[in-house]
Design goal:
Elements lengths: L10 H4 L3 E5 L8 H11 L5 E5 L5 E2 L2 E2 L13 E4 L6 H10 L4 E4 L9 H17 L2 E3 L5 E4 L4 E2 L14 E5 L2 H14 L3 E6 L8 H10 L5 E6 L5 H11 L5 E5 L4 H11 L6 H10 L2 E4 L2 H10 L11 E5 L2 H14 L8 H11 L13 E2 L8 H12 L5 E6 L6 H14 L3 E5 L2 H4 L3 H6 L8 H22 L2
Parallel strand pairs: 1-2, 1-5, 5-6, 6-7, 10-11, 10-12, 12-13, 13-14, 15-16, 15-17, 17-18
Antiparallel strand pairs: 3-4, 8-9, 8-11
Helix pairs in contact: 3-4, 6-7, 10-17, 11-17, 12-13, 13-14
Length: 469
């Protein structure tokens, strides 16, 4: 493989016309059974070929002793057998001209020298037969467009095709990418767990997702890059079209050691990775929670033109906390122009108790329940005239269609980022994903929202600097 080899066309990995399950089982609690039951449940339309020499039929599907016994073309083999048997299975896939194989089995390079030798044997068989491999030691893929979910096959997920792609060098991270997308309200185009990256690497997936115009955000958890120079070259090109958000594990000595034993990765210098990432347009996350918060943020269709932030709140404590965070992340909270303050005062007088501040932060004190929608959205309309983005912490019923509709109208009128934080996230959680689905970023806490708005501001500045080159 050359340093900048173009990624293979992964269409038939994420949208295979046929799937062989090597290690198929009648038992729906075993992986080989869950994969089949999940494909049947989630509406996969292609042919499914269970592979198990001991069973003539599994879940009403004809079972085959080997992939060699299948006469039809196979796009994807999902392999869930003991590690020692994987090289032979991959060799047979190659003989049947199978395009891709996902090796869920563990016990390879992550175990050290002996495991690395077995992984090399597997890879030699794959290359000999032209099979491209995801893994080993991985959870596979989530492809809602195709009705495939091997990452959390036991979970019933909405098969709604979205615009966020996730790449995870950890099954745990990939599992959460799928499960939390439902909770947070954004929808995945695809998620892939890459494990040991024996063949297909993070760079291959970033390149493929970068070329997909339907994907608007690429998010990834990685522990090590096997082609660091290629990664940064890809990022420099792709980040001009869409944001790339990465949380890199192994930033500490202990973390690097854990990465080596987890996926056999050499984590490398985090400081070097961090500097190169910022230079090439990658947005860095510091936790899995922040990674998904940033994915939510970048589904926003607008970028700020400056760093002036409006804070529109109905909570004095929230105003103080938010202002403190802004100072740390480079956002300013300037006083609103006198004319804007007067406009706010004229609107709010008689609707709320006298406010201690209409300068910024704007304290709405207490909005009557029957006027919350009008007060919040009209105040936001006024504030957005004077700032580049806005954080609105409110107690409105976020799930009510009238509130969402009014909010959307103001949001798209000004074409500026607005982040919503509910006053009581536990009580208003029902409405949070509803707003995110309408591309209005929503977060449980103000620090999450402000960090997200800071990331949008930094991306705008990066794109401006690149355009000036």
């Amino acid at each position: 493989m050359t340093s900048y080899e173009t990624a293979p066309d992964l269409k038939h990995l994420f949208q295979p016309r046929s799937i062989a399950i090597v290690g198929a089982s009648r038992d729906p609690t075993k992986s080989g059974g869950m994969f089949i039951s999940g494909l049947l449940r989630d509406g996969y339309k292609g042919n499914i070929y269970p592979i198990n020499p001991k069973e003539p039929e599994i879940m009403s599907l004809k079972s085959y002793p080997s992939v060699l016994d299948i006469q039809d073309e196979i796009d994807l083999a999902i392999i869930a057998i003991s590690n020692n048997n994987v090289p032979r299975a991959i060799s047979e896939c190659g003989q049947r001209k199978c395009k891709f194989a996902i090796v869920h089995s563990a016990g390879f390079a992550e175990l050290g020298i002996n495991g690395k030798a077995l992984q090399d044997e597997m890879l030699k068989a794959a290359r000999s037969g032209g099979v491209r491999v995801v893994g080993p030691n991985c959870m596979g893929i989530f492809s809602p467009q195709a009705g495939i979910n091997t990452i959390v096959p036991y979970a019933v997920m909405p098969m709604e095709h979205g615009n966020v792609a996730f790449i995870g060098q950890s099954g745990w991270a990939a599992e959460n990418s799928v499960l939390l997308s439902r909770e947070r309200g954004y929808r995945l185009s695809a998620s892939v767990s890459i494990g040991n990256q024996s063949d297909l690497t993070i760079e291959d997936f970033i390149e493929y997702f970068g070329e997909d115009n339907n994907i608007k955000v690429i998010a990834a958890y990685i522990e090590g890059s096997k082609q660091g120079e290629r990664l940064m070259k890809l990022a420099a090109d792709i980040s001009l079209k869409k944001p790339i958000v990465i949380w890199k594990g192994g930033s500490s000595e202990a973390g690097a050691e854990a990465a080596a034993s987890h996926t056999g990765s050499l984590a490398g210098s985090y400081a070097t990775f961090e500097a190169a990432s910022r230079q090439n347009g990658i947005t860095l996350a510091r936790s899995l929670d922040e990674l998904f918060n940033l994915a939510v943020a970048f589904t926003c269709p607008y970028l700020p033109t400056g760093n002036k932030l409006g804070l529109l709140l109905e909570a004095g404590g929230g105003a103080v906390a938010s202002a403190d965070i802004c100072d740390k992340v480079g956002l300013t909270v300037p006083p609103l122009p006198i004319a804007t303050q007067q406009k706010l005062d004229n609107f709010l007088i008689g609707r709320i108790p006298p406010s201690p501040s209409l300068k910024n932060p704007i304290d709405l004190v207490w909005a009557p329940l029957n006027e919350m929608t009008t007060i919040y959205t009209t105040a936001l309309d006024i504030v957005l005239e004077a700032v580049d983005s806005c954080l609105m912490m409110c107690y409105a019923f976020l799930h009510e269609e009238q509130f969402i509709s009014n909010l959307e109208s103001v949001y798209h009128k000004h074409k500026k980022p607005v982040a919503i934080v509910p006053g009581h996230s536990s009580e208003q959680r029902q409405g949070m994903p509803m707003l995110v689905k309408r591309v209005i970023p929503t977060f449980a806490m103000p620090e999450n929202a402000i960090n997200a708005l800071s990331a949008l501001t930094n991306r705008a500045a990066y794109l401006k600097s690149r355009a000036a080159e």
